[in-house]
Amino acid sequence: MKKLLKTLIIIGSIFMLIFSFYDFLSIINKLNTRNTREHLSDVGKQTANTYSEIFQSLKVSIVNTSELISTSFESQKDIGNILENFCHNKNLFARVWYVDENHLLQNYYHKMTYRSKNDYIDKIFKGEAGITNSFISDYNHDEVIAIYAPVYKKNKVVGGVVGILDLNSENNNYIYQDVFDNQSYVFAVTGDGQIISKIKNTHTLYNGDNYFEFLEKEVHFDQGSYHGILEMIDKEKSGYFSFSYQKNKRYVYMTPVKINNWYIFTVISNKVIDQQNNYINQATSLLIIKISIFFLIMLFFIVRYFQKINSRYETINKELKTSNKKIALLLKQNSDRIFEYNIKNDSLTLDAWNDYPKLLLNSFLSNLHNYNFVSKEHEQLLKDSFHKIIETHQKVIFDAKFPYISKDDETWFHVSIIYNEDNEKLIGTLRNSSREMKEYNVLVQDHMFKNSIYSQAFAMFAVNLKTRKVVIYQTGGIYYNAIDVEYNDEFINKLLKNTYKKDRDKVRMFFNYKRVQNLYHHHDGHDRIEFRIFNEQTNDYMWIRFRIQFERQSSNNELLMIAYANNIHSEKLRQLENEFKAQRDGLTGLYNRQTFNQLVDDYLKEEFSVARYDAYMIVDLDDFKSINDTLGHSYGDEVIQRVADILENNCYESGYVGRFGGDEFVIFLYDQESNAQIENKVRKILREINGIKFDKYCEISASIGMTFVKKEKFHQELFEMCDKALYVCKNSGKNRFFIYTENEDIDE
Question: What residues does the GGDEF domain cover (predicted)?
């Protein structure tokens, strides 16, 4: 019989192992599918970023060319030469036109004239620069995109520059191509589904001109819907969907391009995922065979081992039974009443006590409320205590009221429960503790009242650090007996309910139970904290200060943590005002030199787990002394203030801006998307400074020396690099920026 049982166990174990491995393969395949979807998302976002960067770069080149014509051209020949040189710089434009005052497209170099019916001509003469959606060109009847910018003379639009991009059915120049080893394909479309460009491969299902028509009429959606796609486009969101078409299934990730309302659709065939899953299944199957052999060998040794120790179990069981008898005897000698709780049966047995007979309560925890065994206020406390000892096997002690035993609602009992590993039961004692609890509450409330009056606190609470219970708290001058409230995350979250959002983390850490214990035992940390809470009377936030002190109760020598809150709003506002004045430049409100340098040094000392794009730059106004000399210092101060506003508006989200004195400013940009984004921001700053206008005529421009942050740890290193770049900038024409490099070659 025993041999048959062992055989069945071994066979069952093998079947369980095989089932587990098949389940493991299923999980691995699901994870691979999920990882593929995530990679599809990454590829889609990278494609959209690449697409956006290329077109934004083309737009910048058109804008720069229009600005060059605005400042340099004297004749039609000059315009023709500028545009012809621009076309020879290996950009992506098929044609570049100049729009004259008659709204005609001109190529002065080749002496060509052409009239366009597209509305971007009108936008140019409204002073707008932008990128059109795709349209059919009247010039050659091909599908094209136009990028345009106005040309100014004396603050008036006199023409414009238009770059034309020819789009074909499979243009890879605009699309990120490393998509699953070229096993996927990509569509770039306008908001109405018109295809701008695409990558085609053997898995392509659609070769038309409008992708939305295909999705609306030809496919069956497995996940998502056509209207859901339109809704995501309307809200400029990214997301997944999948569809089936002629027994072919495709997974698609769509993401906006941030140009007009263009979108990128990255599509992958289910065959790609199936190939990856098959490869993983083969490798995993080989691993399963190896593990199975190892498992069988280990199973043999385990069976042999248990055969040897089986005889020792009987001796251990006898010792446990003897230990159980000793525990029961000890409990009877040291308690008023004993109870036993059977975990499996959910039944509680009360031993006979004085004139009360032995009682058995079945379905105890599940039917606790109907028994009226414990007062309503302590029902949850009892349930939590039972569950805690069942889960952790650690001794539990608490005080509560038990009407079922005392026949009234006012008698307190001290409860102590231990876990019996022999029979998986709980054994506990009940001792009348009403007198101690009454004295304790009176002493605590009286002491807390005196302390709160002494400290003029408008709120306070006290915690017994031994039992981790909130014994009392006061708010609005009213005291509450809270002896059964746990000092845990739930209680602290109530404190944070009206706390200012940015202060919540530091307040949560300050009142953390382990930190409070460390403060008492090792004096490690602060005993006070200042933060903001919402004041319903003033409908605004106010500053308060919580202080912590520790005292022992004379009645039982238990340690209390007492926390008091005081109103420090007026005091704090004065302090913050003084700090602001000490950190800011008086004329512009920007950071002064000392504060700016400290902020940069603090940032450079931080360690980051991913690569970040940061830059340091010096901004110096060109010929600023002449403004003061010719227009007066009041105009000079206004120029300084308006330049400060431009720098602050462009850099406040992820940067620090400071004034080092006179017309010299410093900027530190951090956590940018790319170095190209930083350069674009610098160009924008230069344009806006050039655009400052006054009643009295004066031209305002700036020179900027900058460097990208690499491994520098101090602001002084970055300042010296930028100072060298600024020197070169000033000596090569001004009104521009230069970038410092390690070999001291300066590139624009």
Answer: 612-742
- Report the 3 state secondary structure along 299-329: HHHHHHHHHHHHHHHHHHHHHHHHHHHHHHH
pLDDT given for residue 370 in this prediction: 83
Query: Looking at this protein, which amino acid is placed at residue 25?
Result: L
Dihedral of CA 245/246/247/248: which sign? negative
584-587-590-592 Cα dihedral, nearest 10 degrees: -50
The residue type of 526 is H
Decide the pairing of beta strands 478-486 and 469-475.
antiparallel
Q: Mention every residue, 6+ apart, whose C-beta is less than 8 A from residue 564.
A: 451, 452, 455, 457, 459, 460, 546, 547, 549
SS (H, E, C) 332-401: HHCCCEEEEEECCCCEEEECCECCECCEEECCCCCCHHHHCCCCHHHHHHHHHHHHHHHHHCCCEEEEEE
Chain CA centroid to CA 574, Å: 34
Rounded alpha-carbon distances, angstroms, from residue 155 to 643, 679, 693, 703: 20, 26, 11, 22
Give me the residues of the chain with pLDDT under 50, please: 169, 171-172, 331, 453-454, 745-748
How much is the pLDDT for 324?
58
Walk me through the domains of the chain, giving residue ranges and CATH numbers. 35-285 (3.30.450.20), 335-432 (3.30.450.20), 436-576 (3.30.450), 584-739 (3.30.70.270)
Give the pLDDT confidence score for residue 278 in this predicted structure. 77
Q: Which residue in this structure is represented by tokens 């008023």?
A: 336
Strand pairing class (143-153; 156-166):
antiparallel
Q: Per residue in 647-686, pLDDT tens? A: 999 998 889 999 988 899 999 999 999 999 999 999 999 9
Tell me what pLDDT residue 454 has. 47
Residue 282 gets the label, from left (phi > 0), alpha (psi -120 to 50) or beta, of: alpha
- Cα→Cα distances 723→677, 704, 712, 745, 746, Å: 22, 9, 16, 14, 12
User: Exposure string (b/e) for 129-153, b if CB count within 10 Å is 16 or more?
Assistant: bebbbbbebebeeebbbbbbbbbbe
CA–CA gap between residue 346 and residue 670 (Å, rounded) = 61
Closest-CA residue to 464 (of 392, 547, 399, 395): 399
For residue 726, give the nearest of 668, 666, 675, 639 by alpha carbon: 666
Q: Residue 654 in contact with residue 681, Cβ under 8 Å? A: no
Do the Cβ atoms of 653 and 740 come closer than 8 Å?
no
For the sheet containing 248-256, what is the strand order?
Answer: 195-199, 185-189, 263-269, 248-256, 239-245, 220-223
> Are 699 and 691 in contact, with CB atoms under 8 Å apart?
no
Dist CA 588 CA 230 (whole Å): 47
- For 290, other C-beta atoms within 10 Å of its C-beta total 9
Half-sphere exposure of 39 (CA within 13 A, CB side): 14
Per-residue pLDDT at 748 = 40
Q: What is the pLDDT of residue 708?
A: 95
Nearest to 682 by CA among 741, 739, 623: 739
